Every structure is written in C-alpha cells, then in structure tokens.
Amino acid sequence: MEKIVLIFIFLTSFCFENSFKNGHKAYQNGEYKKASELFKQGCDSGYALSCSFLGFLYFNGQGVKQDYKKAIKLFKKGCDGGDAESCTALGVLYNYGKGVKRDYNKASKFYKKGCDGKIAESCYDFGLLYNTGEGVSQNKSLAKEYFNKACDLGYQRSCNIDIKLN
Q: Which biological process, per GO, is one annotated for this protein (predicted)?
C-alpha cells in the first residue's frame, strides 16, 4: 500500500511540474493565455511556483484581465506554499502600495521570507527597510547584514550600498 501511495505522489508531482514547464514555455513564446491556463492547473493542484507565475500574469494583465486582488491572492498562495519569489513579490506590493494599502510592516515580513529563500533582491529590500527604519526598528548593522547577504547572492547593487555604509 505504501508503494502505491509513493507512486501516486511521484506521478502527481510530476504532472504539476510538467504543467508548470509547459506553462513557462508558453509564456516564453508569448502565448500568455495558454500559459495562464497551464499555470492555473498547477496552482490549483498546489504547485506554488505555478501560483507565482499566474500571479504575475494577473498583475501584468498578460493573457488574463489585469486583477491586482487576484494576483495578491495567488502570490499569497505561492508564498504559503514555499515559493520565495511569491514572498518577494508580496513584499514589493506592500512596500509600494501596489494593489494593496502600503504597509511597511507586512513588506518587511514578506521580504524576510524571500530573503530566507535566497532571493537576493528580497535581502536587499529588507536591508533598505532596516536602513530607513520603515516597518522595522532602524538598525544599520542589520541593514549591512542583509546588504551583505544580497551581495553574496549576486546582487551587485547591494555590494555597492554595503561599501557606502562602511
């Protein structure tokens, strides 16, 4: 019985990943409507990365009618499912008040999740919040720490800011 369950889990996850890969290929070819349908299949099945990409399509109005609220729900589903890019997207939306009320506190929490998932831009943006004290208590040493982490992850802009803090 355990073997049957394991085989089912393997095949199911393969289908979700395949749906994502086909959606990504359609997206790269400019077939946004097709991509949205494939990403929706993956997202509905719990594949977090599909939720993230579908969120970007809704945010940008590519292949679907632009809908910020739907994009935010999809990013939340992706973030809750462990997709760090979705968490970063939510951080940006809350930081700049795009489709939601500006909320630096929420932005900082989502940037932290994105940074923990090794998204360099999220570490950089989290460092900026610590540098300015928006959404978190101002802390230059933590700002420097997050700038360094972003730099280590390859975000050159953060390396330059780190130098300015020394």
A: response to antibiotic
Which phi and psi (to 5°) does residue 67 adopt?
Answer: -150, 100
**22 and 38 Cβ atoms separated by less than 8 Å:** yes
- Residue 25 has which token pair? 């290929």
List pLDDT tens digits, range 71-86. Answer: 999 999 999 999 999 9
- Ordered by where they begin, the domains of the chain are 1-78 (1.25.40.10), 83-166 (1.25.40.10)
Q: Are 43 and 54 in contact, with CB atoms under 8 Å apart?
A: yes
The CA-atom distances, in angstroms, between 5 and each of 13, 29, 122 are 12, 36, 37
Token pair 């997207």: residue: 89
* Residue 147 and residue 121 in contact, taking contact as beta carbons nearer than 8 Å: no
103 dihedral zone (left: phi>0; alpha: psi -120 to 50; beta): beta
- Residue type at 159 in one-letter notation: C
pLDDT tens, residue by residue, 62-120: 999 999 999 999 999 999 999 999 999 999 999 999 999 999 999 999 999 999 999 99
